[in-house]
Amino acid sequence: MTNKDIYSFLIEKADFYENPEFIVSDPIQIPHEFNKNEDIEISGFLTATIAWGNRKSIIKSSKKILDLLDNSPLDFVLNHTNKDLKSFNKFVHRTFNCNDLIYFISRLKHVYTQQKNLENYIYLPNKSISEMQSNFHENFFKSSHEKRIEKHIANPMNGSAAKRINMFFRWMVRSNKNRVDFGIWKKIKSSDLSCPLDVHSGNVARKLGILNRKQNDARAVLELDTILKKILPNDPVKLDFALFGIGVNEKFK
Description:
- The protein is mainly alpha-helical and 253 residues long.
- It has twelve helices and two strands; from the N terminus they run αααααββααααααα.
- The protein has a two-stranded antiparallel ribbon.
- The relative contact order is 0.13.
C-alpha cells in the first residue's frame, strides 16, 4: 500500500472502532459509570493506573476499587477516614497492592483539596504533554512513600512510552461526540496528545510501516506521533482506535 492508502485505511478503521460498542469490553467503561466530572476523573485515573494485563482482569479489579470507594469516588477521596481504609487490605492487581491504593487515595485527597479538579493540578501552560506528565509524576510522589510505588505512573522524560497515562489523557481530552472518550478537559488540545502505545498498537504500526523502532518507548511514541499528526493533525490519537482495534480484533498481516 502507498502512504495515502495506509492513511485512508487507518482513518476508516478508526471511524469503525470509535463507537459505544468499544466501551463494552474496554476499561473505559469504568468512568462511563459516572456523570460528575470529578468522579469520571478519579475513576478513570485509577483504572488507567492499573491498566496492564488482560482487559477483563483490569475491569474486574477496577470495579473492586469502586466498591472500596463506595461507588462515590470524589466523596470518598475527600471524606474518608483511616477506618475506611482498613477494607483495602486485601486489594491487589498484579503489582499494584493495597498500600499503593491507599497512597493514591491520600494524594488524590491532596489534589482535590488544593484544586477543583485533576486537570488543574496537571495542566501547565506552554508545556508539552510529556512535560506535564513528568511534572505530575514529581508532584504526585512528593509525600513519603515506597520508591517502588512510583512505577505506577510513568514519566516519559525517563524514556517510558507512558501508555497508561497517555490513555488517561486521551480519555479526558478527546471529544465525546462519538460517546467513547469524555472531552471534559478543556485546557489541553487533542492535537497535542500522544498515542497510548502498547504491544497491540505497536505491532500493527510496524506491520503498516509507520513505526520502525522496535522498542515501545518514548522514542517510539515520538516517531509514531509524528506520522499520526500528518494523518489527522487536529486529532492524531483518534487513530489509536484503529491501531488498537486492528491489533485486538483482527488477524492482520
